[in-house]
Amino acid sequence: MYSFSERLNSLMLNQRENAMTQKSEQRNGNLVLPGDRLGVIEEFIPDSGTYVRDGVIYSKIIGRTLMDMLNRRVSVYPLNEGAIVPKVGSVVVGQVGNAQSDNVLVRISRVGKKQMSGFFGGILHISDVSDRYIDSMNEVCKPGDIIRAKVISEKNQICHLSTADRKLGVLYGFCSLCGNLLEQVKHEMRCTKCGNMERRKTSVDYGKEKV
Ligand SMILES: [Zn+2]
Fold first, then answer.
1. CA 199 to ligand 1 center in whole angstroms
2. 19-32 as b/e: b if 16+ CB within 10 A
3. Which of 148, 189, 191, 200 could form a disulfide with 170 if both were Cys (CB 3.0 to 4.6 A apart)?
4. Is it the case that residue 14 has pLDDT exceeding 80?
5. Residue 10's pLDDT band (boundaries 50, 70, 90)?
6. How far apart (Å, rounded) are the C-alpha atoms in residues 163 and 137?
7. Which residues sit opposite 39 in a β-bridge?
8. What is the pLDDT of residues 107-150, one digit of tens each?
9. Which DSSP helix (H) or strand (E) runs through 6?
10. Do 182 and 144 meet the contact criterion of CB atoms below 8 Å apart?
11. Number of domains composing the chain
12. Which distant-in-sequence residues (6+ apart) come within 8 Å of 133 by Cβ?
């Protein structure tokens, strides 16, 4: 078994070898023209604004690339739509997906006040949750929760998130037993339906933000 970063490295190497004659390493937000090479179908799922020929993904339009490395999707957004792409410093809102003890994946659906047309993958690592020590992501957020976070890095073209601010964290948390919205009671989260008590790293405006 290869780790995620090993796979990523070997993919990038392959891409470099495949592309001796053509410039291929697209980055997020790059300006591309029709026919510009975006990658190969082994590494990406082609999405809007792209087409595939002989296993190679090309841009169909003039626009900016959106490379979602976590979901392995590549799309091109028309210039006049003003691509909504999470960048370092962006405050984003999304839904918590796959969770592990030290990180969770977030399906980003909003950047600043703008709604994305699809979603974009981000990752929140346990060391970026808070300034204080956190034992497990289990006390931070759970799959299905709506979370506000800030993009702190785009290392390896992956959107790394942080919630280390009082205005960042879970906006809506749902009971892991019955799915009901959790009510915040001091430092605990209570399910008004089944009485279950859980923990979250909430934003200061928990339950108030319109999503
Ligand atoms: Zn419940």
1. 13
2. eeeeebebebebeb
3. 200
4. no
5. low
6. 12
7. 57
8. 999 999 888 877 889 999 999 999 989 999 999 999 999 999 99
9. helix 4-18
10. no
11. 2
12. none
User: What is the domain extent for residue 53?
Assistant: 4-81
Please tell me the pTM assigned to this model: 0.72
CB of 26 closer than 8 Å to CB of 65:
yes
Q: How far is the CA of 192 from the centre of ligand 1 (A)?
A: 7
Contacts of 32 (CB under 8 A, 6+ apart): 26, 38, 59, 62, 63, 64, 65, 76
Q: Structure tokens of 97?
A: 């997906």
User: Within this chain, do residues 40 and 102 fall inside the same structural domain, yes or no?
Assistant: no
Contacts of 75 (CB under 8 A, 6+ apart): 46, 47, 48, 49, 50, 65, 66, 68, 118
Q: For residue 11, how far is its CA from the centre of ligand 1 (angstroms)?
A: 43
- For residues 161 and 92, the answer to whether their CB atoms sit within 8 Å is yes
Q: 120 and 75 in one domain?
A: no
Q: How far is the CA of 184 from the centre of ligand 1 (A)?
A: 13
